[in-house]
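User: ok so my PI wants both of these folded by tonight, can you help

Assistant: No problem, let's get them done. Here's the first:
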Amino acid sequence: MKLLLFFLMYNSLSASVLDNVRNQFPKINSIEEAEFYMKLLENENDPASKAYYAAMFFMKAKYVKFPLSKYNYFKKGKAALDQLILENKSNIEIRYLRFVFQNELPAFLNYHSNIEEDFSEIIKDFKNSDLNKEFKQKILKNMLLVKSVNKNQATQIKLLSDKI
């Protein structure tokens, strides 16, 4: 039933698949929702869509019950997201996704080595990005919500936000 509601909601919107996933991404709160968005994204070929597809593995890991399944979803998401960044080094949206996950995932997973690198690349390339102004503001706002953002990073984010 839930998937039917999502499908109806999706079909009633005129935005692209990627825009819909971008808007719903922070609000996903079940494995069913993650699977629904994966289904929508599976035929999309642009790097950002592939990055959100990879991010859905992290979301599935968050909501699945069994520890081995959690770890397997985590590994799939990590491998896919890291590969996308290797292929698209200057794509700030993909780096933003990794930045958020590396800051939010438990430390014992040992997936936090690119936080500073991603933050630096996001800040450096942000103004030149072809993302629209509204979405850029959303990215910056979400980065400020990350629990481990330090004062210096928060200041840089706020300054960048003021310039947009």
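One down. Here's the second:
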Amino acid sequence: MAKKEFRFKGKTLEELKALSIREFAQLLDARKRRSLMRGLTHQESSLIEKIEKKDSVKTHARQAIVLPSMVEKTIRVHNGKEFVAITIVPEMIGMRLGELVGSRKMVTHHAPGVGATRSSANISVRG
């Protein structure tokens, strides 16, 4: 069985790469389209310049929208504590970088430490 060809709003990846940013913006939903039509921020424009030169870059620009030119590049996005590496695949086009890297971890609680409360004296340390 042949692998299904990627399409975004009926356009192939090569067709998307040929579009300008304004033409690509017309394919996005209203909020992202308006963001791109107003122009890129300094962070976003410097990210695009860096990604054209290198295959791997670091950024704090979580609000940046994944453009077709970013496909198959590795971007290390800051999650508030560290830089998390993501490799951009065609299915990520049109998403924001912050959506791809979570900034919160699920909290898991364990048994209280020794001496935490009076009742902890009765809890087995091995358990």
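The radius of gyration is 22 Å. The chain has a mean pLDDT of 88. Good luck tonight!
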